[in-house]
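Memo to structure team: turn this sequence into structure tokens by end of day. - J.P.
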Amino acid sequence: MAHTIDDLRYLMQRLRDPDAGCPWDLRQDFASIVPHTLEESYELADAIERGDCEQIRQELGDVLFQVIFYSQLAEEEQSFGFAEVVDDIVEKLLRRHPHVFPDGRLRGAGGAGPTATEEGQVKRNWELIKQRERADKAQHGVLDDVPLALPALSRAAKLQKRAAQVKFDWDDTGGVLAKLREELDELEEAVTSGCDSGIEDELGDLLFSCVNLARHLKVEPETALRRASHKFERRFRYVETKLKRSGSSPRDADIDTMNALWQQAKADEG
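Reply from structure team:
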């Protein structure tokens, strides 16, 4: 018989048993688990990107275990439990989907659901509901509760999205592209001047503008950069393989040879 969520919760309780539990699990607290949570989330994202269904299933289990672990820690200090975590997310999703749950009840009357033309309004309503939720939490600043621990690209995109909600944004991609060129010019000036702090500042501005452009183009910057990294890795491995077959290596080959092989890798990809 397949195990259930209750079995997983019981397993976690056994791991945290003060007398017979696992020494490593007993040493952990909220802060110490965070790096593992981030790692498991990235491993899940990687499995999804590779389309590996078996690995996705396993990584989902690892992510779920993180939720169970945090909930167990909270139960031990009597601050909240797994049941409250589930209740909170169900209530939030009911609240944020009035087009599906018009009476706010999980098993109440169903909504008509959004048509393609209504999807934009659904997204706007979602953001309005989130704004009200932040106001209820006494978070009055537009940029309140954007997590500092987010990856830099994702946090930049979220900050820009929040600002855009109050119309602090470019009207179209033309304005963003012009800003991008301006930031590139300023970076070139900083490089010419040789000011290290200026170079860092201007490079940061350039990256921030690239994220802004991605948002306007409806491209997820974190995903785009991950794909670019995978593409670089794939092509560089091609160069390594070709050099190895000829009895050479990247350390021995000249740049012209490696560039020629790089172009071959691009051509082979079509």
